[in-house]
Amino acid sequence: MGLKAVHFGGGNIGRGFVAEKLHLAGYEVVFADVMDSLIEQLQKTKEYTVTEIGGEGEKVNKINNYRAINSKTHEADVIDEISTADLVTCAVGPNILKFIAPVIGKAIDKRTASKPIAVIACENAIGATDTLAGFIKDSKNTPQDRLSSINDRASFANSAIDRIVPGQDPNAGLNVKIESFYEWVVDKTPFAKEGHPEISAIKWVDDLNPYIERKLFTVNTGHATAAYYGHARGKRTIHDALQDSEINKIVYDCLSETSHLIVKKHGISTEEQKAYVEKIVKRISNPYLEDVVERVGRAPLRKLSRKERFIGPASQLAESGDKIDALLGAIEQAFAFLDVKDDEESAELSKILKSTEAKEVVTKVCGLEESHPLFKQIVPIVERVQKNTK
Length: 390
Prior knowledge:
Structural class: alpha/beta
Largest sheet: 6 strands, parallel
Order of helices and strands: EHEHEEEHEHEHEEEEEHHHHHHHHHHH
Low-confidence stretches: none
Shape: globular
Strand order of the largest sheet: 5-2-1-6-7-8
Radius of gyration: 21 Å
């Protein structure tokens, strides 16, 4: 019997990154999603393409050997698939993990295979698999008398993923356009006993934290900074924004501050981090990605949260008294990303700013306590944005 993976989330990252790499590693992929139209399309279409875009041109991979199940209407079928699978992955967004946990929990409890299923959440969030595992182990989703033996049935491994998915052509259907560069790093320590899955696209490491923070505080910080300044200055794409010499310098200034933290905290050499920054700026500057600033900037509430790309590094740097001037500027631009079409969070942020006192905004949005050294530096930023948007 061949290898089988169940993947939650049939979106662009799911189809264009995770499923692509699992397909190339020889897995049959079973998509699980709640979107009726997407599942129907996957069920009717036996093959789609993933077009990788890089400086060297385009490469097209054909993806087949997959099935699709509506997890809303056919939960029992999804449970059966997971109970006999080798791997379960997801790319649904951090806020959706609690909704997929019940079905995964039931499936894990049903397993009888001698080898535990590998569970890897592929989300743009720190410790996403730990978060998912926490929901799965909740008494509502796993009988408490079965918790002590759950590791016999499942191995939970955190991961860090990095791949830019630009806006897609409106008539693309299931086909996905994606950048050629990618990084998929997974903690191998949960697999010490049984051995990790054989997936050549994954880099297996003993300590994931340096990779997570380096990626989040370089790729995501730089990408979002370019997006928020680009939006404020009327730029259409990230490429357009980075052609502006002032924005370009601001992005490098932000990444200089986060690089100081990464080098000091994780022991990565200054030269290695500098080379990584150059590679990242070149990647996000790719004109062929057609990366629209509003797409990259969407969900400002999440991006301004405590452990995310701005407050995460700025809070750590503030604690040690290090320079954060550029990060503070980017944070201000993020707070000013308001009422953007098709972005619910930008509308919600606008409501919060209009109805809430500045100090409470900092606590609510950024998760900072008043005693934190960064708190008093964010309050005047919020006050300025509130004043300018009245």
